[in-house]
Amino acid sequence: MICIVAGGAGFIGSHLATRLLEVGHSVVIIDNLRTGKMENVPKDATFILGDIGDESLYNSLPTQVDCFFNLAAQSSGEISFSEPEYDLKTNTLGTVLSAKWCVDTGVKRYVFASSMSVYGNGGTSAVTELVPLSPISFYGIGKLASERYLSVYNDLGLSTVSLRLFNVYGPGQNLDNMKQGMVSIYLAYLARGARIDVKGRLDRFRDFVYVDDVVNAFERCLQTDISGEYNIATGVQTTVGSLLEQLCEAWGGSVEIQELEGTPRDQFGVFGDSAAFRHATGWHPAVCLKDGISAMVTWAKSLTLS
What we know:
two-stranded parallel sheet, alpha/beta
């Protein structure tokens, strides 16, 4: 198959592109390199510099494509408040333009990286796809709008599936980006031996999913014809305080932790039930948080020593 991976120079996208190449697919990567890095692009992939929110990009794309993976995103809730226009362009407009291009050129499959942010604050139970959606950030609103557009495109003949990713982490996450990625942000503080500034309370909670498990979920979407929206989560509720304890233990030390004022309209807590996706595809998360953190710390330490 010929697969486009939009956002393929980023954290999750580069892992996905690598996997697709390993199993024999051809890969075309689109990335504007605002947060992605050329060093992340696999050598056997074709790279196109561009933004899926720009109409001019589509003139340069190959027309014989089997699947479009859309992982191109402004992925920070905090940045969505400081740059709402960019968030709208990259996330929602980019989804609309790329889906339309897929319909116009005969692409059959479209897989979208959505987000847990569509749920807002999930409460004390694991959220399923059936709970009311109430995003509280511009980022979450944009992801939900993209899902809705794709559901219409699905009715127009483009087979679409949206994966609602919870907190993805793992080796390769950008340790320089201090506005996106809870695990990578705190690990970056540890690597620098600096005080960890926590924006928000330590009793906030999340659901942390290892990047290899997420890549497996995207790959399952090539192997099945499911459509709709699905949670990609572990079902495990982890507080920020517990995450910090596990990171410090794995790193082999401790640093001062300071609670600061939270970011605008940050989710207090949400964790997910992925039973629907498991039943549809056989997928399940294989890496527990302890093992995932250990692998990520080993990778981060190799960077600090180089």
